[in-house]
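Hi again,

Forgot to attach this to my earlier email, sorry! This is the prediction with adenosine-5'-triphosphate bound. I've pasted everything inline since the attachment limit keeps bouncing my files.
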Amino acid sequence: MGVKLNSGPTIEINGLKFTYPGINGHPPPGSKPLIEDFNLTLNAGDRCLLVGSNGAGKTTILKILGGKHMVEPHMVRVLGRSAFHDTALTGSGDLSYLGGEWRRDVAFAGFDVPIQMDVSADKLINGVSGVDPQRRAELIKVLDIDLSWRLHKVSDGQRRRVQICMGLLKPYKVLLLDEITVDLDVLARADLLKFLKKECEERGATIIYATHIFDGLEDWPSHIAYVANGKLQLALPMDRVKEMYKLSLMRTVESWLRKERDEERKRRNERKAKGLPEFEQQNEGSSGDVRAVNNGWAAGRLNSTIAGEENFVFSSNRVLRQ
Ligand SMILES: Nc1ncnc2c1ncn2[C@@H]1O[C@H](COP(=O)(O)OP(=O)(O)OP(=O)(O)O)[C@@H](O)[C@H]1O
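Structure tokens for the complex follow:
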């Protein structure tokens, strides 16, 4: 549930629209946006799971939030600022993004160090200045890191632990995680998730976590956001999801993705029957409709094919049926 440390939302996505630029740096003429009509509001303490099928747009959304792609400043506000235009947000460590290119490198003293190079965990982790020694020690313990590890000689999972430790050293206010736990063993993943939850509950951090791995996540998120074809299909507090679906998290998400896939197949067959190309031009056409309301809450009309024609407003701790 949201911790009332900050006044106002920590993350606000308002009518986000985004198209990847073509080779000339501009969106190809006539192309449909990859992300469209996307609205989401999160508060301090919220832990939002971002789910969706491969290619749904999760990484793109996280990268936009992380200031890696330019969008109009009003479309994405992190801690009340535009992540792309206000570089101090990431520079200060208030906003941290772990994913994408980060998977190949470790940010170290202003440089990106390839994670396979011959350098010790000690040098990397203790080489970052301005870090609270207690926080550093806690992270080393949580991730069970041996400081004598040399990055080029350890396993993928051990390297990943060092990398995650580096990414969490500064006490971020907003953390964007793009599936970072794939290499971790069950224990390391469970301990990390517990640490991240504590960060939200005690410090009021806000986390968005995009993942396909639901093991051990049952009681982790406070909210879940489901994206399909670049559109937000559903955004709800977890309590509400459990109440509505009465299934495990994995089975719930599975049911959404199955419906989405079946509908997509049906659409393709209909197109074929009409003599149209089976696959639509990328991001052409979409379904779902979500809008923001003025008081900073997000309102979502669930895609009728997913959960029936119902309207919900969610804040960090309650759902109102409209
Ligand atoms: N740099 C790029 N240029 C053009 N299109 C891109 C680029 N990166 C991603 N895309 C396209 O954007 C769509 C969404 O990709 P994205 O990586 O955001 O999906 P995702 O939901 O994170 O998928 P996954 O679960 O597989 O990681 C895909 O169709 C992909 O092909």
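Residues 20, 34, 52, 54-60, 282 surround adenosine-5'-triphosphate (CB under 6 Å). Residues 249-273 form the longest helix (25 residues).

That should be everything now.

G.
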